[in-house]
Amino acid sequence: MHPIAAFTLSVFAVAVTGASLAADSDPTSVVEAEYAFAASAKPLGVRGAFLKWLAPDSIICSPAPVNGVASTAADEANADTLEWYPALSQTAGSGDMGYTTGPWTYRTADGKTEAHGTFLSVWRRQPDNTWRVVLDCGVSHAKPEMTPTALKPSAPSPKPKTTAAWREPIGTAEAHFTAAATANSKAALKSFGAADVRVMARGVPVAVGLDAGQALLAGQKLGSVWGHAFAAQSEDGTMGYAWGYIGDVHSETPTAAYVNVWQRVNVNAPWKIVAQSLQLIPPPREN
Fold this sequence. Notes:
Elements: H1 9-23, H2 30-53, E1 54-61, E2 65-67, H3 68-74, E3 81-84, E4 88-91, E5 97-107, E6 114-125, E7 131-136, E8 139-140, H4 170-183, H5 185-192, E9 193-201, E10 207-208, H6 210-218, E11 225-233, E12 239-247, E13 256-263, E14 272-280
Parallel strand pairs: 1-7, 9-14
Antiparallel strand pairs: 1-2, 3-5, 4-5, 5-6, 6-7, 6-8, 9-10, 11-12, 12-13, 13-14
Helix pairs in contact: 1-2, 4-5, 5-6
């Protein structure tokens, strides 16, 4: 799910200040929306916060991709806590799509269990002009030795919308990637990943950079065939996301799911993966 890391005192102060500011008014940026989302988990509970901020067609990784609202609604409310804050965020020039990532911490109500990890969320502006999460696919891992610095909420910088014809839609870029990944996933990441790409998988620290990302991929038993199931992009064609499945050639069930967040500097530049989340799917239980 979407979870936060233990705050150092300074980071905690920044995060709480940002959350309270964002909660007082409608968020005007993805970062403000993330802080408002996190702040709402206290009065509404974790389940209530997700139901408020997830888009109707949202996808969450559980670990297989499922509809976020339906999956969350099926859960029972409890007093467990989930805290998080954004440490990295980018927004499309058209201002209708963005993504956030950062640390989370989960604690059971009885205080006996604590878990940590990194979230990855894609946000999209809705027809009513509100920001909602359309994809939430983070991972769990050990508490990091150093907690990332929290972002400060700020108003988005106005950017002109481009009207140029797109050189390549996100679906085409994703199809090229999955074909390359089926042949060699590490080589595909090197070809399609940004220099500072973030790759995440359950149980290991987030890998930052192409070399670290390739090393993380080498340690995962993902399967050999990659295929995307969904892709969407911003109005100006500079940001997009996609998700799909990974499996073995002769298997009818996937062994993993993946998410790619894509960016490019303009519509004539090549797409680059800036974040990738890998979700191992346990095999189905035999009766």
